[in-house]
Amino acid sequence: MRLFTLIGIFALVATCFWETQAMATDGLITIKSSFGPQDTMTRLETEVKAKGLTVFAHVDHAAGAAAVGMNLRPTDLLIFGNAKGGTPLMQQAQTIGIDLPLKALVWQDEQGTTWLSYNDPAYLAGRHGVGEPARTAIGAMTAALHAIATKATAR
């Protein structure tokens, strides 16, 4: 449990200095994008692929809403990852498979601001009781997501 306390403290300190940080809600990291929804998603997908991750699915929730005659501001989900990163976590606690592969949501609020949200790997590890042996995988996922999100949202 000490590991997750330290990871939590590190994440808190990092978010205090990460100027694009907008909000954090129960393990959800949300940052403001300098780009519109479509450009943010394009940049996100480009960075995910550049990190050698596989894009498994792209879910355009706004298009789904439009298909049934409903309106929804841009809300786009990218599902991505790789077995090398996720398997060590599932070896510790198979239930974390419900939260893997990784996901990132690009969405637009009522004021027209674009945001990128994703699950904090340390939070997911704590939620599922993933132990010390997966610490390296959690750290790598955290760093990769931070780098991907920063490149996708910052000028």
Low-confidence stretches: 3-7, 9-21
Element order, helices and strands? HEEHEHEHEEHH
Question: What is the C-alpha radius of gyration, as a whole number of Å?
Answer: 16 Å
What is the residue-averaged pLDDT?
A: 88
Q: Proportion of β residues?
A: 15-25%
Strand order of the largest sheet: 1-2-6-5-4-3
What does this structure look like?
There is one protein chain. The chain has helices at residues 2-17, 37-50, 61-67, 83-92, 121-128, 135-153; strands at 21-25, 28-32, 54-60, 75-81, 102-108, 114-119. With 155 residues, it is an alpha+beta fold. The chain has a 6-stranded antiparallel sheet with strand order 1-2-6-5-4-3. The N and C termini lie far apart (38 Å). The model is unreliable at 3-7 and 9-21 (pLDDT under 50).
List keywords for this structure.
single chain, 155 residues, alpha+beta, 6 helices, 6 strands, 24% strand, globular
Give the gist of this structure.
Helix content is 48%, strand content 24%.
Blueprint of the fold:
Elements lengths: L1 H16 L3 E5 L2 E5 L4 H14 L3 E7 H7 L7 E7 L1 H10 L9 E7 L5 E6 L1 H8 L6 H19 L2
Antiparallel strand pairs: 1-2, 2-6, 3-4, 4-5, 5-6
